[in-house]
Specification:
The protein is of the alpha/beta class. 22% of the residues lie in helices and 23% in strands. The C terminus is likely disordered. The chain is globular, with a radius of gyration of 25 Å.
Length: 333
């Protein structure tokens, strides 16, 4: 037997490991906060009247933490400079605003948790409104169980009524603002709610935030005269506390909004009068204009439903299926 064979007979020493235990920390002293922004693995949370910087605890594994999440924090939650708490639990979400990269991408991207209102900010001019994107925002709101609100800006530049007439059959509430105008009506709609501002770049979201919340200092961009598009000024999603009660979540400008994850059945559930008549539809009915034997067609023919309302609803479904004009993907989240 060679010297090498003799050495091979010796077993490698076993690595000493600490025995596993089923006991887990209780975190009885953990405090509850809301995630207001995130940046490179660090989360800023509101805890009572202070901001606390935190990181995700290892035991959460692949559990996602997003803006708007209510979380439990352990460790140093004093908020003092240089301190770092740990997010040890994500509490159940009441709503979840999601999107996909495009209509063919099955992977959903969670955007904001626990908001109850989606404020769709649209300029009536400069840049021109894009109804296809508005429709997609509405579908996302209904899918998430959020109340949609149309906020029209720059109404001093053009008449908002032609745009509003498109959405009246759906019963979508709206508020109109103008540059330098009074925001009292919008404040009333936001009070005591958790609202998310969405819209493509250049529509005036940052201007609204600065008008609603003194000291917010959100950067304001301009619209390119050649392309008619705005430049991204807000690059991160941020939760801000409203002076009169409630929270406002400002998001970066969005130029596309994929809806591959949305179930059409959840969209129609947002319209009880339409959902009621579709109970007679064939199994698997898509409720679109080309769907055979759809109960919506029968209800319109019998005068039980407003044809404009049905047409508007079907336009939303068409938007979900990607049949509206697409806008190039240039979003930052």
């Amino acid at each position: 037997m060679s010297r090498y064979d003799e050495e091979a007979r010796y077993d490698r020493p076993k690595r000493r490991t600490r025995p596993r235990t089923k006991d887990r920390p209780s975190y009885d002293d953990a405090v509850t906060g809301i995630v207001i922004t995130r940046d490179r693995g660090r989360y800023t949370c509101w805890v009572d009247d202070r901001q606390v910087t935190a990181m995700k605890a290892r035991q959460l594994g692949r559990t996602g933490v997003i803006v708007g999440d209510r979380v439990r924090l352990a460790g140093d939650a004093s908020g003092d400079e240089g301190t770092l708490a740990r997010i040890v639990e994500v509490l159940p979400r009441t709503t979840l605003l999601r999107r996909s990269a495009d209509d063919d991408d099955p992977v959903e991207r969670p955007l904001v948790a626990n908001a109850d209102q989606l404020v769709i900010v649209v300029a009536v001019a400069n840049p021109e409104p894009r109804t296809g994107l508005i429709d997609r925002f509405l579908v996302a709101a209904y899918d998430a169980g959020m109340r949609p609100l149309l906020c029209l800006t720059k109404t001093d530049l053009a008449d908002p009524d032609p745009l509003l007439s498109i959405y009246r059959p759906l019963g979508v509430e709206s508020v109109a603002t103008r540059q330098g105008g009074d925001l009292a009506e919008l404040r009333e709609q936001l009070q005591d709610r958790i609202s998310v501002l969405v819209g493509h770049s250049g529509v005036g979201k940052s201007t609204l935030v600065n008008g609603l919340i003194p000291g917010a200092d959100r950067a304001i961009g301009v619209v390119n005269e050649v392309t008619g598009r705005g430049r991204h000024t807000s690059t991160n999603t941020l939760v801000l506390r409203l002076p009169d009660g409630g929270w406002l979540i400002d998001t970066p400008g969005i130029r596309s909004f994929g809806l591959a994850h949305v179930d059409p059945g959840k969209v129609i559930d947002a319209f009880p009068d339409l959902a009621e008549v579709t109970e007679s539809c064939p199994r698997g009915c898509t409720h679109t204009e080309s769907a055979p034997d759809c109960g919506l067609d029968d209800a319109v023919a019998e005068g039980r439903l407003d044809p404009d309302r049905v047409a508007s609803f079907r336009r939303l479904l068409a938007s979900r299926e990607g049949r509206t004009q697409a806008v190039p993907e240039q979003d930052v989240t």
